[in-house]
Backbone:
C-alpha cells in the first residue's frame, strides 16, 4: 500500500514528522519498506504560461516560446526553444529554469539551439517523473485552477509529498486504505486527532428504479450487495491533482468515472465497480436486474483486459438477465465497461467472501487491486459511505445527478463481536497488567468497552476482522505500547534436555559429508510445474509421473507437489548457467518428495545431488573436465560411509538416464535410488552444453548409524597371485568379484581389480579383467605349495563356472 503523507494529513492531525511516523509504524508490525519523494529529484521547477509561439530562425522543426514564469509583471519574458508540436498560446506548462533539476537528477543549464540560447526548458510528464499523467506526446499541459505563473510546480501538482510504501500483512486488510492507516496512526501517536469526512447521502431523483427490477443474492459467498445510480454523467479526464494522487498511490488514471471509484477505494478501503447502466442486459420485461450467483462450470466472460475467462463452479459472478457482467471482486466485464459515450452509471459496492475471491483471483491469474483487498477482508460498515463518496466525486467531476435511492440487499446479517481482555494473560505475556492503560490503548484502536458487562469485554470494530480471541487483544496492547517495553527474561527451567531425532542426526552427518566433498547445499520449492516432470520422460505407470495437484497453488508453475528432487536441481543449474556461470557445478539437496498413497499422500525423505562438468573458459566448444560419472559415484559412496553404510551398484535404467551410464544404488541388498548421466537429448532440451550427472537416494537407510568394528592387525604375511580372465560385457565387476570370493576357499581374503582390456585379440562381446588375489592364514605363514594349490582350485572352479582363463 502506497501512502501519501499529504493525503493522510487531510484525515488526521499529527504532531510528528513523516520519519517518526514511519518508525512507529514499523515498530508496531506495519513495516515501512521505503520512504520516497514522488517526483524523484525534481526541484526548482515552476508553473509557466505560454504567451507567444514563433518559428525558430534556423530550423523549421523548432519553435521559440515566450513564456511568463512569474516575471511578466516586471516586463520580462523568458525565451525557451522547444520541438513540441502540441503547444498553443495560452497553455499553462511546467518550466525548468536554469539551475533546476529534473526527476532523474538532470541539472538544467544554458544550451544553444542554433543562433538562440534557451533559458531552460519546458517539461513533459516523463521529465517530472509522472509519465502516466499525459495522454499525448509532447509538453505536459497543466490544468490547475488557482495556480499562477511562477508558482512552485511541486506544490501546484501536490508533489511536495512523501510516499510511504507500507507492507501490509495478510491479516490486516483494514490498513489498505487512507482511513485505516489514519486509525493506526491515531493509536500510535499520542495527541493526534482524527477528522473523518462526513459524506452526505445523494439528494436526487430515483426514477432509475422504474427500469430496474431488483438485486438478488443466490449464494452466501456474497454477504451484501449495494447498487447506486447516477445519470447525466460525461466521461472525461479527472482533475489533474486527483490524477497525480492516483499515480503516486500506484494506480493509473482512466477517466473521471473510473478514477472516482479508485480514489474511493484507496480512501475507504472498499472496492467499487461502475457499470454502464445502458449496456447491462435486460430481462424479459425490458427491465434490468442484478443477481450474484456461482458460475456454471465452463461459463465464459470477457473481462476488462480483453481476455475471455472460463469459469468454474467455485467462481462468483455478477449477472444481469442471466448474463455474466463481472467476476465478483476480481474484474468487471468488457461488455458493460465505462466508455466515452456513457451517460448512466450503476455503481456496485459489495461485500464478498475473502476465500472465494482469493481462490478465483489466483486461479485466473488476475491480481487486481480489488481482489487484493477482498482477499484480506473489507469493512462492511464502509460499503455505503464509500459508494456515496464515489457518487459525490462523479457528480462534481462528470456533472451527473446521483439518485437518492440505493438498491441494497443483505444476505448474511452483520454481527457484533465481543472479546475478553484477560488481566492474567496480560501479565503473563507482557509482564504488565495495567487494565486502565490497556483499555485506553484499545479505545484509540476503535475497541469499545462494554459498560454493562462485569468482565472487561471489548466490542471489536467492524474493520478488524482479525480479532476474535483474548490473545488478539493482548497482542494489540503489546504492539501499540511497544514490544521494547516488555522486560527481558530468561525462559523457565526445562523439564528435560532437548534432543534431535535419529533422522535429524543422520541428515546433519550426511550434510557435513557432502560439504566436505565440495558439494554446495541448495533448497528448492516442494512445488513444481507438470511440464518439469514431463521433460524427464516418466512413463504413465511410474509413480513419479502421477503427481499430487495443489488445491490452492502459488502460481501455475508451482501447481503440483514434487515426486522427485531432480527437477529442482536441474532448475538450480539452469538459473546459474543463464546467469553466466561456466565452471563445474556440484550441488545437493535434502528434502521430501510426495507420492500418492492408497488413502493419503506418502512423504519420503530423499537426498539428491547433481554434478555438471562445466565448460572450459575461452573455448568455443563444450569440454569435459575431470569431473565425471565416477566422481559423483565417489561422492555418494562417501556420504554412505559417513553413516557406516556400504553401497553396491548394479546396472539400472531410468527414463531420463543415459543408456549404459545408469546404475541402481543398493544398501544391504535393497534398492534405494539411482545414479545416472542425464540423457543427452534431455540435456540439450534444457540447454546444458556439458554432461550432467545426478543421483537420488532414500535417507531412511542412513537413519541408523553403523559403527565400525576394529581388530588386531594380521600377524602373518600375505601371499599374492595374479589372475586374468575373460568375461562377457553383461557381467559386472561386482558380480565377478563375488564369484572370486565365493570360489577362492578359506585362504582368499581379498580380490582387487587392477586392469581391464578389450580390443585386439579379445573376442567380441567380452573383455579381459586382471585381479590381484591375496591369500593369508591368521595363525601361521602359508607355504608356497598351499598358495599354489588354493590358486589352482580357484582357477578350476572358475573354468567350470564358464570363465575363460588367460
Residues:
Amino acid at each position: 500500500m502506497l501512502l501519501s503523507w499529504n493525503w493522510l494529513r487531510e484525515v488526521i492531525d499529527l504532531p510528528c514528522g513523516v520519519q517518526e511516523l514511519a518508525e512507529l509504524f514499523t515498530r508496531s508490525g506495519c513495516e515501512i519498506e521505503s520512504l520516497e519523494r514522488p517526483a524523484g529529484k525534481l526541484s526548482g521547477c515552476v508553473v509557466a504560461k505560454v504567451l507567444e509561439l514563433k518559428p525558430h530562425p534556423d530550423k523549421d522543426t523548432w519553435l521559440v516560446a515566450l513564456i511568463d514564469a512569474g516575471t511578466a509583471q516586471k516586463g520580462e519574458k523568458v525565451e525557451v526553444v522547444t520541438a513540441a508540436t502540441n503547444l498553443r498560446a495560452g497553455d499553462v506548462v511546467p518550466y525548468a529554469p536554469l539551475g533546476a533539476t529534473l526527476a532523474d537528477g538532470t541539472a538544467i543549464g544554458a544550451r544553444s539551439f542554433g543562433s538562440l540560447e534557451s533559458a531552460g526548458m519546458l517539461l513533459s510528464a516523463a521529465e517530472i517523473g509522472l509519465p502516466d499523467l499525459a495522454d499525448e506526446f509532447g509538453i505536459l499541459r497543466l490544468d490547475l485552477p488557482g495556480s499562477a505563473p511562477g508558482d512552485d510546480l511541486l506544490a501546484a501538482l501536490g508533489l511536495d509529498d512523501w510516499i510511504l510504501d507500507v507492507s501490509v500483512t495478510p491479516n490486516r486488510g483494514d490498513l489498505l486504505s487512507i482511513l485505516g492507516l489514519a486509525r493506526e496512526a491515531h493509536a500510535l501517536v499520542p495527541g493526534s486527532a482524527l477528522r473523518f469526512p462526513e459524506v452526505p447521502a445523494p439528494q436526487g431523483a430515483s426514477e432509475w428504479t422504474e427500469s430496474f427490477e431488483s438485486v438478488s443474492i443466490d449464494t452466501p459467498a456474497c454477504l451484501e450487495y449495494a447498487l447506486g445510480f447516477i445519470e447525466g454523467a460525461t466521461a472525461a479526464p479527472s482533475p489533474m491533482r486527483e490524477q497525480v494522487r492516483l499515480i503516486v498511490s500506484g494506480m493509473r488514471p482512466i477517466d473521471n468515472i473510473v478514477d472516482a471509484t479508485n480514489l474511493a477505494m484507496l480512501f475507504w478501503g472498499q472496492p467499487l465497480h461502475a457499470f454502464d447502466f445502458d449496456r447491462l442486459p435486460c430481462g424479459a420485461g425490458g427491465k434490468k436486474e442484478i443477481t450474484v450467483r456461482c458460475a456454471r462450470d465452463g461459463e465464459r466472460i470477457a473481462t476488462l483486459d480483453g481476455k475471455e475467462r472460463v469459469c468454474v463452479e467455485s467462481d462468483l459472478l455478477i449477472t444481469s438477465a442471466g448474463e455474466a457482467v463481472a467476476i465478483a471482486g476480481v474484474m468487471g466485464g468488457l461488455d458493460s465497461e465505462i466508455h466515452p459515450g456513457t451517460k448512466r452509471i450503476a455503481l456496485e459496492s459489495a461485500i464478498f467472501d475473502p476465500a472465494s475471491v482469493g481462490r478465483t483471483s489466483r486461479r485466473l491469474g488476475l491480481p487486481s487491486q480489488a481482489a487484493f483487498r477482498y482477499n484480506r477482508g473489507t469493512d462492511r460498515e464502509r460499503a455505503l459511505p464509500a459508494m456515496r463518496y464515489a457518487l459525490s466525486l462523479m457528480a462534481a467531476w462528470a456533472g451527473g445527478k446521483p439518485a437518492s435511492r440505493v438498491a441494497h440487499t443483505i444476505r448474511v446479517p452483520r454481527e457484533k463481536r465481543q472479546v475478553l481482555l484477560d488481566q492474567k494473560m496480560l501479565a503473563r505475556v507482557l509482564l504488565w497488567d495495567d487494565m486502565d492503560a490497556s483499555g485506553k490503548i484499545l479505545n484509540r484502536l476503535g475497541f469499545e468497552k462494554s459498560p454493562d458487562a462485569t468482565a472487561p469485554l471489548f466490542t471489536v470494530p467492524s474493520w478488524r476482522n482479525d480479532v476474535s480471541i483474548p490473545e488478539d487483544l493482548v497482542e494489540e496492547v503489546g504492539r501499540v505500547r511497544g514490544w521494547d517495553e516488555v522486560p527481558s527474561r530468561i525462559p523457565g527451567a526445562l523439564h528435560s534436555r532437548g534432543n534431535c531425532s535419529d533422522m535429524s542426526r543422520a541428515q546433519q552427518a550426511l550434510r557435513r559429508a557432502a560439504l566436505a566433498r565440495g558439494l554446495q547445499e541448495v533448497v528448492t520449492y516442494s512445488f513444481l510445474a507438470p511440464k518439469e516432470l514431463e521433460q524427464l520422460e516418466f512413463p504413465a505407470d511410474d509413480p513419479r509421473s502421477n503427481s499430487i495437484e495443489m488445491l490452492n497453488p502459488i502460481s501455475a508453475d508451482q501447481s503440483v507437489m514434487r515426486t522427485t528432487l531432480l527437477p529442482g536441481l536441474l532448475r538450480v543449474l539452469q538459473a546459474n548457467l543463464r546467469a553466466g556461470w561456466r565452471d563445474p557445478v556440484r550441488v545437493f539437496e535434502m528434502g521430501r518428495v510426495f507420492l500418492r498413497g492408497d488413502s493419503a499422500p506418502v512423504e519420503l525423505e530423499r537426498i539428491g545431488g547433481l554434478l555438471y562438468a562445466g565448460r572450459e573458459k575461452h573455448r568455443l566448444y563444450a569440454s569435459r573436465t575431470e569431473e565425471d560419472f565416477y566422481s559423483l559415484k565417489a561422492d555418494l559412496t562417501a556420504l554412505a560411509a559417513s553413516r557406516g553404510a556400504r553401497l553396491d551398484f548394479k546396472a539400472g535404467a531410468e527414463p531420463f538416464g543415459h543408456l549404459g551410464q545408469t546404475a541402481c544404488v543398493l544398501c544391504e541388498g535393497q534398492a534405494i535410488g539411482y545414479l545416472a548421466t542425464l540423457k543427452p537429448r534431455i540435456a540439450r532440451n534444457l540447454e546444458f552444453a556439458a554432461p550432467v550427472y545426478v543421483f537420488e537416494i532414500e535417507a531412511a537407510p542412513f537413519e541408523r548409524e553403523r559403527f565400525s568394528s576394529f581388530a588386531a592387525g594380521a600377524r602373518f604375511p600375505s601371499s599374492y597371485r595374479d589372475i586374468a580372465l575373460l568375461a562377457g560385457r553383461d557381467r559386472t565387476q561386482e558380480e565377478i568379484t563375488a564369484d572370486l570370493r565365493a570360489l577362492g576357499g578359506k585362504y582368499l581374503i581379498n580380490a582387487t581389480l587392477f586392469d581391464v582390456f578389450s580390443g585386439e585379440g579379445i573376442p567380441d562381446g567380452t573383455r579381459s579383467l586382471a585381479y590381484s588375489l591375496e591369500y593369508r592364514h591368521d595363525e601361521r605363514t602359508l607355504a608356497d605349495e598351499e598358495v599354489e594349490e588354493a590358486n589352482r582350485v580357484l582357477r578350476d572352479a572358475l573354468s567350470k563356472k564358464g570363465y575363460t582363463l588367460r
Remarks:
- Residues 517 and 635 are 6 Å apart (CA to CA).
- The two ends are 82 Å apart (CA to CA).
- Residues 618-624 have pLDDT under 50 and may be disordered.
